[in-house]
Design brief:
- By secondary structure, the chain is an all-alpha fold.
- It has a single domain, classed as Hydantoin permease (Orthogonal Bundle), CATH 1.10.4160.10.
- The chain is globular and about 60 Å long.
- The structure holds phenylalanine.
- The site of phenylalanine (PHE) has 15 residues, from helix 1, helix 2, helix 10 and helix 14.
Length: 435
């Protein structure tokens, strides 16, 4: 077993891992689209204000609870008050549920990496993608393959697994992203894509836009399932987390913007409609790759980039239950990872089949995949973030003046943590559940 309480080798390793957790599918297939749909540059301004003022607070609080208690989620909550144990358990449970749908997408990415080695012109990607998702056995195999990749790194431990993966994959991600941006901007009429993303549209400023921005920010910053709490618990005592919090927020936003600058110029250059999610990544973009010279290489680069982003996020999702299992049940990482593999597979396989043979099985009108997405993004993550703020503010009594020099800003932080952010999270929860 790894030494009792692992810690990061350096501040850079921690930041890379935390940014690796934050930068994932949320940045690439959701942020640019949400930005384009919700007023472009205006959305960006609102988003930046929201993350600096509001999201800073739960993000900082998660890292702080981990760093102060030096425990995984369940132990951390329990050490503050034994009554909070159940609230702590909700974090690894959320992690298991998120991985059950997130990893399915990871499987599709692996498939498209393989596909990039064939002649892309032969495919009609709309039909191809539907067939891929409906074809039960290969689809389940892909989901499990992605799960195994993430489990492999997690099982190797914090330094040899998590740090190693992030140290290799994050720089690779950044280099491929810059290369693809250069390519995308060199296409004819690429400015139309930038206009779609950035053109300010004041008519879109409304309550819906604020909530869209906030929901997106929580998911993309990995707030509300204990990933940052667990990563925070591996920080050595002397390291401040204020700067790290801003670095995570800044990098996550930067990568989301860069993802948009990579995607939209290409889409508009080909006169296609921008969309989000699976349709954008697995149908629209491959359609473009098939039409450009050396498209297979561009396709390979793009899906490797996506895999790097998804794996570093996936590892952080797994680390939450793995840390809880190793520390609470006193079992080795390998054993915890093996058990977790079967637990996640038990959820992920039915979710994968919900595109095929289990398609008619609906819970509240949603198939299993959509249901897992809905329950985690709209219910559990805001709820976990709410309890985290309450526990950090009212029980652990984290105070702004312990890390902010300016008295007024420290006061705003205290009010935010104890009142404003919890109320906003409840509002988000209320609206999210009516969706
Ligand atoms: N932030 C990741 C993304 O944008 C997803 C994630 C959520 C990772 C919660 C960890 C915890 O894709």
């Amino acid at each position: 077993m790894e030494d009792k309480r692992p810690s990061w080798s350096s501040r850079v390793s921690f930041i890379l891992a935390a940014v690796g957790s934050a930068v994932g599918l949320g940045n690439i297939w959701r942020f640019p689209y949400i930005m384009g749909q919700n007023g472009g540059a205006i959305f960006l301004v609102v988003y930046l204000l929201l993350i600096i003022t509001i999201c800073f607070i739960p993000l900082f609080a998660e890292l702080a609870v981990g760093k102060i208690t030096k425990k995984e989620c369940v132990g951390a909550y329990e050490s503050i008050n034994p009554k909070f144990k159940l609230l702590g358990i909700m974090n690894p449970v959320t992690g298991i549920l998120i991985s059950s749908f997130y990893f399915i997408v990871g499987g599709w990415i692996i498939n498209y990496i393989g596909l990039s080695f064939s002649n892309l012109k032969m495919f009609n990607f709309g039909e191809y993608f539907t067939e891929l998702t409906q074809n039960s056995i290969p689809a389940c195999g892909l989901t499990l393959a992605f799960l195994l990749i993430c489990i492999f790194f997690t099982a190797r431990g914090v330094k040899k697994g998590i740090e190693f993966a992030n140290n290799v994959l994050m720089p690779m991600f950044a280099v491929i992203l810059l290369g693809l941006i250069a390519f995308s901007l060199s296409l004819p009429n690429s400015h139309l894509g930038l206009e779609y993303m950035f053109k300010p549209d004041f008519s879109k400023v409304n309550a819906h836009m604020f909530l869209a921005a906030l929901g997106q920010a929580l998911f993309t910053l990995s707030i509300g399932m204990g990933a940052l709490l667990t990563y925070g618990s591996y920080i050595k005592d002397d390291k401040s987390i204020t700067k790290s919090t801003y670095t995570i927020i800044f990098s996550d936003t930067l990568f989301a913007l860069l993802a948009g600058i990579m995607i939209f110029p290409a889409i508009f250059s080909f006169g296609l409609e921008p969309n989000s999610g699976a349709g954008l990544v697995f149908v629209t973009l491959p359609h473009i790759f098939a039409q450009i010279p050396h498209g297979e290489i561009v396709s390979l680069a793009f899906f490797v980039l996506l895999l790097a982003a998804a794996v570093t996020s996936g590892i952080s999702i797994l680390e939450v239950p793995v840390a809880s299992m190793t520390e609470r049940m006193k079992i080795s990482r390998t054993k915890a990872c093996t058990i977790l593999f079967f637990i996640i597979a038990a959820f992920a396989i039915p979710a994968t089949l919900s595109f095929g043979i289990l398609g008619d099985f609906k819970i509240f009108g949603k198939n299993i995949f959509d249901c897992l997405d809905f329950v985690t993004s709209n219910l559990l993550m805001p709820l976990n973030a709410f309890f985290l703020c309450i526990i950090a503010g009212w029980f652990l009594k984290i105070k702004g003046n312990s890390f902010i020099n300016n008295k007024f800003v420290a006061f705003l932080f205290d009010i935010g943590l104890k009142f404003v952010v919890p109320i906003i999270l409840l509002l988000l929860l209320y609206i999210g559940l009516r969706a």
